[in-house]
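TASK: fixed-backbone design
INPUT:
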């Protein structure tokens, strides 16, 4: 159906909603409007009030309040809630943490549970720190353990096999303590970008380790099975290896585990070992968390912050998120029990950069840092007040007596109330900047409808440019080449200062903003620290140490162009991208990153199909990679030699190159099918217009046999690419510890 809506939504928001959120029938047709989606969610979440004695008229009023909260785009819950509330699936949580016990039974129990969670639409975090190290003795068989990294492969393969309801892919966090004997292998396990594509990884740094780094001493490695010290390593050597790998391709990230547990609200219940996939939600084993974000861009009225309106929205959002806990259909009984025992919620923000622009405050200014603390302090205090009010009406969370709140005699409904999460898809729907990130671009060109170029300009920038008289199509085109106004003539200096982008500000400024929000966030803050391509490992090291000094709970960095498969980067033409994201910007604008095709294995398997063409029989062989995806195509004409044979071979080589560069098969099929030549023929299944048409149709038949529908969708999806969107092939942004495509709404982490 064609979406018709009375809401003010951007074209891209409608595209994302249609693709990922709106209900579909069995044929994949959209069967609800955005208003109906928000009504579905509001009605489902409001029903929880019935559990606490509310009358039906009161529940209806709550439903209307929740509907207004969302349709105003002033608050949105995490993606699974929008997708699944009021549906048969009913799984509403974004993130889970599962324990991985040191036994074969425990490991595969975790694999099974993860598959169930991924199928329901959630992401999972694991600590592999309990697993005995590589080479350790296995008592039952007297064999030798293969270690945590080896077992991570099992989780990765299982995740690849499970698609999250067709709308969200599996996303994992893998964490290992820095004092585990296998830490060096873990730090380097994603040195090859093709390994562990369904994992983000982070090293859990301890206070002992950080002290050893500062003093340049050795620290102890401990076998988790025996508790015995197995050796020592020089802390600075390990730290520099972590830094070097993060500089190389963005992983591993780091989490300060002892610091996280120092703010654990329920230490008597258990110790926190891991986080969700983006690192902002530390959780106990079997806990889940329900997240939502307030759109700060909507909280500016008359040139200032409308604090009363913000207070009202915070209280409504806390009510909403607490209700989610009760109406949620949990994938596992243990998760339901632990989640309801602690009732953690994570209220965060999006549109922070938009708020600053409306207030005339540059992102990288002392005023912005001061306001960040003020805004987050206000949200945190009001959220806790809302939780206390709910505790009076509904009771404290069951583990309250074992929490830090009991020591303070402070009765609250929720063990935690605030989290700064990634808002990739949500911010597209809300039409605002993502999370607490700066703008990714001021202006860029989006390619739509067979090469039609659509110039997209930040609405605040366009308004100011028109008001101050420097707007022109030519200037916007110039800005779109890099996305930044920093080096563009004709833009006033004060406007340049206000419209800074992610690559205009320094990594240290990124970290200071993260730390400012972290001071008033219960859980953690998801943010990416962007580095220019020319940054050095020493630059990354300084940021890691600064994050530790400023009280951050973790850090994710990304050096522009550091991953081989990044489609578009410095100096590349924005017009060459089909994605809505521009080329990242920075001092290295003369550098161009190119796609590197995957290497061919020594052995591949495939099938050959004969296609009748006007030039004779064409034998088309499609070979698969190790994941069962098409990897290369060979074509052989039934009669030797001739122009047709050479052209079909050339097409096969180019198709193979495209497949090895992770171009979606359906896009190749779309380009080849229908090409005509003067020698057409009819064969079983219809007309063959040319050799190119035959190759396209042979590839389509191959994909259909594999379980898809050729160029019409449902072709098996490959794992997320590190720099290219796996769904539309466009540019992705590395932000908030995640990967986001602004063109189609794909996110690696949901």
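OUTPUT:
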């Amino acid at each position: 159906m064609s979406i018709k809506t009375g809401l003010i939504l951007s074209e891209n928001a409608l595209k994302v909603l249609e693709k990922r959120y709106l209900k579909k029938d069995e044929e994949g047709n959209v069967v609800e409007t955005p208003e109906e989606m928000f009504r579905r969610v509001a009605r489902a979440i409001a029903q929880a009030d019935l559990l606490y004695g509310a009358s039906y008229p009161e529940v209806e009023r709550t439903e209307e309040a929740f509907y207004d909260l969302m349709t105003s785009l002033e608050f949105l819950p995490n993606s699974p809630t929008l997708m699944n509330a009021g549906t048969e699936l009913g799984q509403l949580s974004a993130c889970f943490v599962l324990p991985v016990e040191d036994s074969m039974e425990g490991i595969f129990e975790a694999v099974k549970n993860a598959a169930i969670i991924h199928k329901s639409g959630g992401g999972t975090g694991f600590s592999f720190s309990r697993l005995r190290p590589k080479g350790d003795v296995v008592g039952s068989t007297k064999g030798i353990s293969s270690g945590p990294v080896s077992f991570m492969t099992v989780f990765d393969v299982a995740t690849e096999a499970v698609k999250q309801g067709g709308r969200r892919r599996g996303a994992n966090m893998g964490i290992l303590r820095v004092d585990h004997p296998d830490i060096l292998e873990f730090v380097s396990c994603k040195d090859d970008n093709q390994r562990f594509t369904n994992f983000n990884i982070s090293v859990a740094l301890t206070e002992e380790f950080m002290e050893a780094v500062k003093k340049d001493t050795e620290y102890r490695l401990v076998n988790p099975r025996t508790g015995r010290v197995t050796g020592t390593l020089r802390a600075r050597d390990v730290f520099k290896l972590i830094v070097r790998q993060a500089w190389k391709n963005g992983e591993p990230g780091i989490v300060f585990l002892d610091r996280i547990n120092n703010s654990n609200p329920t230490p008597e219940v258990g110790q926190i070992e891991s986080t969700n996939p983006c690192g902002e939600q530390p959780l106990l084993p079997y806990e889940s968390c329900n997240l939502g974000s307030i759109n700060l861009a909507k909280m500016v009225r008359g040139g200032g912050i409308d604090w009363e309106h913000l207070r009202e929205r915070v209280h409504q959002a806390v009510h909403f998120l607490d209700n989610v806990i009760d109406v949620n259909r949990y994938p596992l009984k243990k998760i339901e029990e632990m989640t309801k025992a602690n009732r953690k919620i994570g209220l965060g923000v999006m549109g922070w950069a938009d708020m600053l622009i409306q207030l005339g405050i540059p992102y990288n200014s002392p005023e912005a840092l001061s306001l960040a603390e003020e805004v987050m302090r206000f949200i945190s205090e009001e959220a806790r007040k809302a939780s206390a009010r709910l505790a009076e009406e509904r009771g404290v969370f069951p583990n309250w007596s074992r929490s830090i709140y009991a020591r303070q005699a402070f009765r609250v409904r929720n063990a935690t109330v605030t989290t700064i999460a990634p808002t990739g898809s949500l911010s597209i729907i809300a039409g605002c900047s993502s999370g607490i990130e700066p703008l990714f671009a001021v202006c860029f060109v989006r390619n739509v409808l067979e090469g039609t170029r659509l110039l997209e300009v930040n609405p605040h920038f366009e308004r100011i440019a028109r008001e101050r008289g420097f707007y022109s199509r030519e200037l916007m085109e110039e800005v779109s080449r890099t996305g930044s106004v920093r080096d563009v003539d004709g833009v006033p200096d004060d406007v340049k200062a206000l419209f800074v982008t992610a690559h205009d500000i320094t990594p240290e400024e990124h970290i200071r903003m993260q730390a400012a929000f972290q001071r008033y966030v219960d859980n953690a803050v998801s943010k990416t620290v962007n580095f220019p391509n020319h940054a050095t490992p020493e630059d990354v090291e300084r940021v890691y140490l600064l994050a530790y000094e400023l009280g951050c709970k973790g850090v994710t960095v990304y050096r522009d162009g550091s991953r081989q498969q990044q489609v578009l980067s410095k100096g590349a033409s924005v017009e060459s991208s089909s994605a809505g994201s521009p080329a990242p910007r920075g001092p290295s604008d003369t550098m161009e990153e190119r796609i590197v095709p995957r290497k061919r294995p020594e052995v591949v398997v495939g099938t050959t199909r004969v296609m009748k063409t006007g030039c004779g029989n064409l034998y088309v062989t499609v070979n698969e990679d190790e994941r069962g995806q098409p990897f290369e195509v060979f074509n052989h004409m039934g009669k030797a030699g001739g122009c047709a044979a050479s052209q079909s071979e050339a097409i096969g080589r180019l198709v193979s190159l495209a497949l090895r560069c992770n171009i979606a098969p359906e896009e190749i099929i779309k380009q080849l099918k229908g090409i005509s030549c003067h020698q057409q023929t009819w064969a079983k299944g219809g007309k063959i217009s040319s050799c190119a048409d035959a190759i396209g149709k042979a590839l389509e038949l191959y994909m259909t046999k594999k379980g898809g529908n050729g160029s019409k969708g449902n072709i098996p999806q490959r794992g997320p690419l590190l720099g290219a969107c796996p769904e539309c092939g466009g540019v992705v942004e590395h932000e908030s510890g995640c990967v986001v495509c602004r063109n189609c709404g794909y996110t690696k982490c949901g």
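COMMENT: Confidence is low (pLDDT under 50) at residues 565-594, 708-722.
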